[in-house]
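debug: dumping io for the single-chain case to check the tokenizer round-trip. Nothing else runs in this session.
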Amino acid sequence: MARTYLITGAGSGIGKRTTELLREQGHTVVGVDLRGAEVEADLSTRQGRERGAREALDATGARVDAVIACAGLSAPSPTTVAVNYFGVVDFLEAIRPVLASAEAPRAVAVSSMATLHPNSSELVEAMLAGDEQRALTIADGLAGDPQTANQIYGSSKRALSRWIRRESITDMWAGAGIPLNAVAPGVVITPMTEELRASGDGMALVDASVPMPLNYHQSADSVANLLIWLASEANTSTCGQTIYCDGGAEAVLRGEDAWAWADERVLAYYMEHVAPLMQRDS
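debug: decoded output
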């Protein structure tokens, strides 16, 4: 059945390819981007996000089945925080009430395997607190030091993935029947990575930071197809996940045990919620 999608970042890269594939499948797509999309809006500002969401909804007649948030920057600057975190979160929240009225609503965003890279916990917490001005100020300070500037991108994506985990299980998302998830790519062959991949030194840095034992650098299709499935009616139960579609980089960096760190929290939950029921029934 044909569905209606809103896609941010539809003018280039992963967003553009996702838009093309969905249209080839017969779906309606309204793209939102700084340029080259049906709705042109600057998602780095609150006013731009509000206008972009409003015009996107107008373009669909306030009928939306899924939102795919692909807009993002990799520059070591405060604008990356504004677009990658607040541009995604504010846009999704603006569309959510209309999305909730769809028969099979879905929402998915593009995160990054850079969530695993060194980051600024202060910046991440400012974003998660919704304090955009403070987050931009912190990012500006990080950008002024070559030793910390590269933490901005990873911090923005870590905050986004954490927001998705936090919000996905709330009444506003899961309670409204909306699966909310993210996809975390590795090095994707798009214009955003072209400069880094153009030189030997840049390539060496990229490959050391993002080890991809499976099939090396990936096409935009590899990410777009996963985004499309998560945003489709077929996805009924995946919730709050950041799925690493990264050629194995996450497995290399985290190793074989990515669970033990949370054992204490899981045990505490079990003792509070499960053990009393077992004791009552015994």
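debug: round-trip ok. The chain has a mean pLDDT of 96.
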